[in-house]
Amino acid sequence: MESIEAEGLRLNPQPQDDEESPGTLGSTLEGLQTEDQRKVLDTIVQLRKCGLDGILSLPEIVVCGDQSAGKSSVLEALTEIPFPRNDNLCTRFATEISLRRELTESLTVRVIPDTDRSEEDQKRIKDFSESITDFKDLPLIMDAATKVMGIANDGDGSTQSNQTPASAFSKDTLSIEINGPNRPQLTLIDIPGLIQSATKGVSETDVAVVAEITDRYIKRPRTICLAVVSATNDAANQPILQRVRKFDPQGERTLGVITKPDQLPKGSGSEAKFLELARNEDVFFKLGWHVIRNRRFDEKDFSFEERNAAEEHYFRTSNFSVLPQEMVGIETLRTRLSQLLFEHVKAALPQLSEDLERALRVDRHELNLLGDMRSTPAACRVYLAKLSMECREICKAGLDGKYEHGYFKMGAEETFSLTNKSTIARLRAVVQYSNANFAEDLQKRGHKYFFSMAEDEPPEDANLDQNNASTSTAPKSLSKEESVAWVQKMLLRSRGTELIGNFNPNLIGELFWEQSQPWEQLARNHIEKVSQLCKRFLANLLEQKAPKEIRGNIW
């Protein structure tokens, strides 16, 4: 991957004549963070560099919303990166913008394949990597990325060169990494807009893919969601609000953003409704709401400076001027987002530290399980033989109820529970406990009928089991009269060669078999329960004693 610095090019040349140079990244993003904030976020960046973002949920900002809500325009205004808007390519997949503080300037674009793809596809997609010097080239790069992902550029389901049907959307991620000495440490993500129903060129599968991508990002507990809603559509009809509520019911990490307020008729009921929404009086988020004005179609060639000036004029002269200044405009959104991100990261650091310690313990345990290097078949055989003997020794001790081995250690405060791994390790004790439960169950539910000896009083045990609605084998209660009728029925159908006034000796056996009918199912349930306990015992043992790749081949 060639560095832009090595080519003698700059990503951030100084604009001439006090005009913003189009296609380059200005210094506006530095307003997102103070020096203290950068120091805090440096910690998160170091974790990402270690690849821990694939293991832990790290703080990030996700711009989400429905189709045509103006998400990409929000991200573009926020970062001053000119995303292509006409062909809508940037909303066909998640776009992850990683801003990193490095000594040298560089800008690289690559594709991160979805983990559900085959190894061959993942390798092919990972090979895609481009370096650019000007954001004017971004549409071309994104077009190339769509081909690598297998996305239909025209949305009509056209096929790729290998005749595989192309999808309108992809679960792969376009990664744009911008490095430089003046860059803030920040990750921003733009995801495809939610689609309510299939249309021409968009299948039901595509609708499900977009929903899955959205859920994958907004469900992360350390993600700040910028929920974008368009003023051109009633907020109640925009499913993103219900989506973020599903994963953030208290609105603790969601900031609502209203776009296109200038398209509302001035003084209309719709305008009043969105003013109410902006005041956090309709859909409540603890982080509140913000309003920005996007470029109109006739302003598509505006520079960012012209765009910001038009927005400032609108909020100064429109009915939205009644809102506090800190709730309107892109500049105040940067400031607001900066503080939110800082506080969010600070609050997340203690729990993140615990998660890291836990992950470190797991990895160290896995590393210890690997043992010495095994480069020959003989060494592998020795290792497997040693592992087998150790597991056999523990299994025998567990079966015999001899718990001197360190594997069976249980803390004094630990409770005896079948959900506890330390409990399951003591297999003989667990099976004895299950046997006792089975004996009690057999005593209470092993008979088909309860017999009441009193004429007008049901048996006490019958009341007990009738209240146990979850037991499918609960005995049926019979009154004295019903009990006699049952025995008489069995007596009539069992008559044989016996003299009149006597009964067939086999009657006792038939009554017993009928009364003990539940035994078989209760016994089967008990055997299955013990079998599952043994499986859990072995699975836990291998988890503790064998590396992941070995236990995957054994169990």
| Number of discrete helical segments | 17
Strand order of the largest sheet: 4-3-5-2-6-1-7-8-9
Large-scale geometry: elongated
Extended strand count: 11
Top CATH class of the largest domain? Alpha Beta
Region (Disordered): 1-32, 457-477
Domain Dynamin-type G: 55-350
Keywords: GTP-binding, Nucleotide-binding
GO molecular function: GTP binding; GTPase activity; microtubule binding
Question: Please, could you describe this protein's structure?
Answer:
Pfam families: Dynamin_M (PF01031), Dynamin_N (PF00350). InterPro entries: Dynamin, Dynamin_GTPase, Dynamin_N, Dynamin_stalk, G_DYNAMIN_dom, P-loop_NTPase. Keywords: GTP-binding, Nucleotide-binding. The structure is a single chain. By secondary structure, the chain is α/β, with parallel strands linked by helices. The chain folds into 2 domains: 332 residues, Rossmann fold (3-Layer(aba) Sandwich), CATH 3.40.50; 153 residues, no CATH class. It is 44% helix and 11% strand. The protein is built from 17 helices and 11 strands. The strands form 2 sheets. It has a 9-stranded mixed β-sheet with strand order 4-3-5-2-6-1-7-8-9, sandwiched between helices. α1 packs parallel to α9 and α10 crosses α16. The longest helix has 41 residues. The chain is elongated and about 115 Å long. The N terminus is likely disordered.
